[in-house]
Write a structure and sequence with these properties.
The protein is an all-alpha fold. The chain is built from five helices and no strands.
Length: 102
Amino acid sequence: MVELFDQGVKPDDPRAMDVAEEARRTIDRNFYPCSHRMHVALGEGYVADPRFTAFYDEQRAGLARWLRASIQANAVGHSTIQGPQGRLPDSSERQDQGTIVQ
């Protein structure tokens, strides 16, 4: 993840999406069922909760937001969560900041 971030890889690059998918599968295997929808919610928490943000941004400033964007791109790539244009709705399209609205 950090290597891709350092290389300037965009969050919707397949390599970044693969990192997000592996993170989701790790959670799903080792902790609790983690659908793509659940993973998107977790990604929101990585940015909304200062403790999570600090954990990721301690490695690289901006990494939490990059990971959240990679998680969102991965979910869209798996066609599980899409807005009206085949993408995740941005914050202006959400009814609730904690919930992705279809």
